[in-house]
Design a protein that fits this description.
two-stranded antiparallel ribbon; single chain; TIM Barrel; alpha/beta; globular; 17% strand; eight-stranded parallel β-sheet
């Protein structure tokens, strides 16, 4: 796996430092991949909500400064609860940003932050709005962009069912490009009696496009990836056993000591 960081861990640092500078600090701590997250991109973004746009010139400056790193672009997109226009300016701008930062393998990671009455247990539970993913996945594939979805309000198994359903609606190429960003801790936070690591283990490898590591202790957010409510070493071992070799992001909370916490997270997973 390629261990990395995400820019929303740097909310505390962004008012006084550029994304370009902060990426450099993450590299010093051992990061090999950076997830560039909407709302936490400083000089590399403009606007908010539906008016959000990546600043392509500034993103290019960041990527060119760190040629040994890999990057993906991440955004909040209510694609499970609203119909999103694939040809719309916001989605097209996000694809352009993903292509700029992603090099030979552009990747747009999305999350629907809307509250959802879940879980969805059968295809009949999937609302019509969520099936609009077919158009988004087809457009992303047309432009050569991988598209993954993080589980926020739904368990991993429900998200996998959505992907399987949408894959059946699109071309084989578009289907292969659509997958998940599994975050077992998100699931544990909402469905405390579930086993998100078993659901992760049941995913086919080709559905896992990127993963998030984070930790809770007694249900509360922990500042680093370490021992806690989720067995992060078991998560690591599940992914290694599958042969997963993609990016693994430490989505740790913003903190004055966030970069020390990032380094200790890498050390823990390498133990």
């Amino acid at each position: 796996m390629i261990y990395g960081a995400i820019t929303n861990s740097w909310r505390e640092q962004l008012p006084s430092r550029t994304v370009k500078e902060l990426v450099g600090v993450a590299v010093e701590k051992g990061a090999k991949h950076i997830e560039l997250r909407q709302t936490c991109l400083g000089e590399c973004e403009e606007g908010a909500g539906n008016d959000w746009r990546p600043n392509l010139e500034q993103l290019r400056n960041v990527v060119e400064a760190y040629p040994s790193l890999t990057f993906d672009l991440a955004m909040a997109l209510p694609c499970l609860t609203q119909k999103i226009d694939p040809a719309g300016e916001m989605f097209q701008a996000a694809l352009a940003g993903a292509k700029l930062v992603g090099g030979s393998q552009p990747h747009l990671r999305v999350v629907d932050p809307s509250p959802i009455d879940g879980p969805w247990d059968s295809p009949s539970d999937i609302p019509e709005e969520a099936l609009g993913l077919a158009g988004l996945a087809s457009e992303a594939a047309r432009q050569g962009v991988i598209m993954s979805m993080e589980n926020s309000a739904l368990p991993i198994r429900s998200m996998a069912m959505v992907v399987e359903t949408v894959r059946g609606m699109v071309s084989e190429e578009a289907g292969k490009g659509l997958g998940l960003c599994p975050d077992p801790t998100n699931q544990l936070r909402r469905f405390s009696d579930s086993d998100p690591l078993a659901e992760l283990d049941s995913l086919p490898l080709d559905m896992i496009k990127i993963v998030h590591f984070k930790q809770l202790r007694s249900g509360k957010t922990h500042p680093s990836v370490d021992e806690g409510d989720l067995d992060c070493l078991r998560m690591r071992d599940i992914l290694n056993a599958k042969g997963y070799a993609g990016a693994a992001i430490m989505e740790i909370p913003s903190d004055a000591a966030v970069f020390d916490n990032l380094e200790s997270s890498f050390q823990y997973l390498n133990s």
